Amino acid sequence: MSAQQPRLSRPVLSAAGLPVGVETAAQLASRSGPHTALPVAAPLAPLLPVHGLERGLVHAVRGDAAMSLVYALVAEATAAGAWCAFVDMPHAGLRAAHEHGVALQRTVCVDTGRVPSSVGAVIGALVDGFDIVVVGSPACPPADARKVASRVKAQGAVLVVHGAAPSFAPDVEITGRTRRWGFEVRATERTVEVESAGRRVHRPRRVTVLLPGPAGRVASV
Amino acid sequence: MRSVVVLHPGWDAVHGEHGAEHSYRTYERVVRTVTGVSPLVEVESAGRLVFAARGPARYFGGEQAMADDVQARIHAVGSARFGVGIAGSRFAAAAAAAAAVGGAPVIIGDDATTPFLSRLPVGLLVGLADVPGDVVDLFGRLGLHTCGAVAGLGERALIERFGLDGMRVHRLVTGRDERMLDPGAPPPDIVRAVHFDDPLVAVHNVVLSARACIEDTVAAVAATGRQCVRMLVACETDNAETNERIWTEPRGFDAPGVARRISWQLDGWLVPAGDRDSGDCDSGDCDSGDTVSAGVTRVTLTPLECREVLVDQLQLWGGNRENAERAARAVSLAVATGGTLSVTVPQWSGGRDVSGEYERIPVDIVDLRDAAAAETRVDSGRGTPRDWRGAIPVPSPALVHASPRQVEVHAADGTRVTVTGRHELSAVPARVTVGEREFEVAAHAGPWPVEERWWDPARRRRVARLQVLVRPVGSGSAAGHVLLLVLESGAWSLLARYD
User: Fold this and answer.
1) Which of A14, A91, B244, B429 has most Cβ atoms within 10 angstroms of its Cβ?
2) How far is B93 from chain A (nearest CA, A)?
3) CB-based contacts of B234: which residues, under 8 Å, 6+ apart?
């Protein structure tokens, strides 16, 4: 099964969105440059300047649909072969993650015990090997957060911060707002307005999606 | 050496639907039964075990009596399709066991072993001894249809043409196969033990605490330029009860591989005090002699057989191998960084609980680089919640509270809402209070009842789940939150949120 999946060497997508299999030394040097990104589901792609999760950047996910939004953002990349670590998210609903399309066979859950002095070091170690590191409310000193951010940049990983993280300065902020719940007989689908902003997003971008949609995954309205 | 082989043909096909892990764990029941006859049993694979005939045969007053006893014991744990074979070599015993499937034990005397072997078809080498299929194919095309004909080629010719495989085939067909490879090389004098001051009763804890010892053993073997293919794992409790087992791994043991074997071996033997008298043993043979009275205090690892390191073909190709290697390295690096770190991977375990469907198991007992094992572990594409009666319908809540907090559910007239014995709500819920915040209920679904272990008064559990769409009182907005509430022993709590 894994043999048929596209091999995920860095970078995954060129600026034109085409898979790139071979890297030159120059490409290797510019791994964290603006043109390398991990794929995201089509309904969410317009939110992001490069239509994917740009490597080397810190993404913050907020709002009242944040958890589902995290799954929807990382699902496509993990399905393509990227490894993902959920750090300090004991409340992550793994069945929901599976329904959103997250490849749980390439997912690892890490619990740091939330010791502020060591959280930064653990995240730092994980970004060396994982393509995506999702952290729940990291409480580390700002100096450690800056170190983590520069390590993310150097390694070309994607850091996703969920919940309150005052010490991290995100490059991209993605906020979800619930507009309506579809509730016939039981909760079926939800309309969410998602907005992205931040220093890497020159003009705020907005899409309205179903999160989750009828099939459990994110879908266009 | 007289060997006894117990063979369950097709065990993997029947029990391996959830992967090798599951297949080994279910086989453990058979292995434990056989340890009543011979304390030291070697598990060659799930469905095939071997032990030495001499000691037990003397105790039972003959091989026939022992074989009958083994047969009766395995019948008692509910297995039907299996065979017991005894012969002068391992391979001959396995062939005898294959012939005995479904019938009486087959015993091949020492004098009869060589003629018996020489009449066996070469195809058995694939199924019973894991000789590569193309080697056996070639024998067929050379007109060598029996093991006797292959033995006639002579050791030198076999080694020249087939290398290590040829050497092994020669040992098998001539009945000199006590060890898989390299019988000339004495096992290296490497024994590692770890002692726990506090007896450990949880399997996970034993594996975690033995981690350094496991890595040390594997590293010590690696330092000799070889890899271990057979290992004796011995566990000892405070009350001097022991559990010994020989494990075989033809591709060579790595540290997670040893950790997995220890966890299979201890599962079921090491039962926490509270669960000991539960109804898990359906056939009633799990008497007190089968489990232990204390925690594990000592684990000893003895590599019994090593061989030169062969290049593992799997590492040369395979899609996401490189990504997996990087992830596995990062995990060990992170573990080295943080003292209180716990790293887990999801494992599908089914069930109706939103929190229990994916169990988080310690990363130490899995091999992150094994993509096939990972696929079966999470069971992707299978086990949709609909398959379980009473499961929460799709979509599932994105946020599951680790420790649910108490909430209040009231009807419009102010009475508390409960669930009747017929799984119906006592009134239509109108208000939900979470801590200080009050919400009005716009819609609700359920209740979805779960009755677990209703046959066991001590452990029975009866809960009802209720899905509600709520809005803050007086907000008037069309949005809102969907919550999953659970009623257990008369109290409502907030189980999960559709975040």
Assistant:
1) B429
2) 37
3) B242, B243, B244, B245, B299, B300, B301, B302
